[in-house]
């Protein structure tokens, strides 16, 4: 058996990440469903290991020491994206959209727990297959997996991946058709007033209000340093919260520290942080984290769980569609933008923000621009829901442990 050290494992993960991008580029179906490239690359190894296990062979062993810091770095960047000024841009609609998403995350967990009990599974199995992997996506599900495993959920990592991937597919399939049906049945076509003029800025609200020119290399270095500072401060915060008896994922402290530093910079302009550099580092960290985790995934842990996962996914999909058809559509204005928001909501509450953006883009290409939808949905789906969902999952873990 060949054992790869942490550097070799990370290098292998990077190579598989590039392979994943190449495969997705050449397989339109994968691109259509917005399947993440790290998932494609990592699953190649996971599937190969599953086949080898069937023949009683273990060809490789990985050292996943970098998994934890990569995961914390990604969620730290999520924290840096949580600017209070963003709430002022979309105002009331962003808050309502976030409220709906957070409320649905709670219901996802309650529904999942009910389903788990019906199949004689631990209650926290329902949280793994609820908001941890649907509203949270694969990153959040895998981040919480160690806590779920300690609480008695067998094969938590494998369950998290399977449910997250199935959710991504469902979100991609349901998002655009649902919104198109609402648009056509209710006559919610875009009005001329909603179209964006050539000179009007688009909804890129995650950039600095007054971005100054900074040398790219210096901006990247500064962003990396502040991410590391937030991770260091976050370790103390997480340690303090742990001493209070709270069961929390390791990234919570760093995410909170990042949010505080971002809002201090927004108010006083002391640091001159570059959101673009932060997002680049965060996306790279997430991609490497996912591929390294999936390389070492034990897919054989899913044996016997296919039926509970399928029943749960069907019920969760019906729940999301029902919420989009009535309360969300009404609260968001019952117009064209609201229908496009419903598409994005379905995408990220069952899958990821990438699914949401793909669904909304498909609609706007067909029916016309929806500037309000592209302002509200990405702000909530990209990071605000990660904050509230982390709190929700943590509460469920502490109550049911």
TrEMBL record:
Bilayer topology term: Multi-pass membrane protein
Record carries keyword Thylakoid: no
Parts of the chain that traverse the membrane: 6-23, 35-57, 69-87, 94-118, 124-148, 160-183, 270-293, 305-329, 341-363, 375-400
Keyword Signal: no
Keywords: Amino-acid transport, Cell inner membrane, Cell membrane, Ion transport, Membrane, Sodium, Sodium transport, Symport, Transmembrane, Transmembrane helix, Transport
Location in or out of the cell: Cell inner membrane
Family label: Belongs to the glutamate:Na(+) symporter (ESS) (TC 2.A.27) family.
Task of the protein: Catalyzes the sodium-dependent transport of glutamate.
Protein name: Sodium/glutamate symporter
Origin species: Dyella kyungheensis
Organism phylogeny: Bacteria, Pseudomonadati, Pseudomonadota, Gammaproteobacteria, Lysobacterales
Gene: gltS
């Amino acid at each position: 058996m060949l054992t790869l050290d942490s550097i070799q494992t990370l290098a292998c993960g990077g190579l598989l990440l590039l392979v994943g991008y190449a495969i997705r580029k050449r397989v339109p179906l994968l691109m259509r469903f917005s399947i993440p490239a790290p998932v494609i690359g990592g699953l190649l190894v996971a599937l190969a290991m599953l086949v080898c296990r069937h023949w009683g062979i273990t060809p490789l062993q990985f050292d996943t020491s970098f998994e934890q810091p990569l995961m914390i770095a990604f969620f730290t960047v999520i924290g840096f994206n949580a600017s209070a000024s963003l709430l002022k841009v979309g105002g009331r609609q962003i808050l309502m959209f976030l409220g709906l998403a957070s409320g649905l995350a709670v219901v996802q967990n309650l529904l999942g727990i009910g389903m788990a009990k019906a199949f004689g599974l631990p209650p926290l199995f329902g949280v793994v297959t609820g908001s941890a992997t649907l509203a949270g996506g694969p990153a959040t599900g895998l981040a919480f997996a160690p806590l779920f495993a300690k609480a008695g959920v067998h094969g938590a990592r494998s369950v998290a991946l399977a449910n997250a991937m199935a959710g991504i597919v469902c979100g991609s399939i349901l998002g655009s058709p649902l919104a198109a049906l609402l648009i056509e049945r209710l006559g919610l076509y875009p009005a001329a007033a909603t179209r964006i003029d050539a000179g009007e800025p688009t909804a890129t609200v995650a950039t600095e209000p007054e971005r100054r020119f900074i040398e790219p290399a210096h901006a990247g270095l500064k962003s990396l340093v502040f991410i590391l500072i937030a991770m260091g401060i976050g370790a103390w915060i997480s340690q303090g919260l742990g001493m209070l008896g709270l069961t929390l994922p390791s990234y919570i402290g760093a995410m909170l520290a990042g949010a505080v530093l971002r809002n201090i910079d927004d108010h006083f302009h002391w640091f001159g942080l570059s959101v673009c550099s932060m997002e680049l580092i965060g996306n790279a960290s997430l991609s490497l984290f996912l591929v390294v985790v999936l390389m070492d995934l034990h897919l054989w842990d899913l044996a016997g769980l296919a039926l509970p996962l399928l029943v749960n996914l069907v019920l969760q999909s019906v729940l999301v569609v029902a919420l989009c058809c009535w309360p969300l559509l009404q609260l968001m204005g019952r117009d064209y933008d609201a229908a496009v928001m419903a598409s994005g909501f379905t995408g990220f509450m069952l899958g990821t923000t990438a699914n949401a953006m793909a669904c909304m883009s498909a609609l706007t290409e067909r029916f016309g621009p929806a500037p309000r939808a592209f302002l509200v949905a990405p702000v909530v789906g990209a990071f605000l829901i990660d904050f509230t969902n982390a709190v929700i999952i943590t509460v469920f873990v502490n109550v049911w442990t």
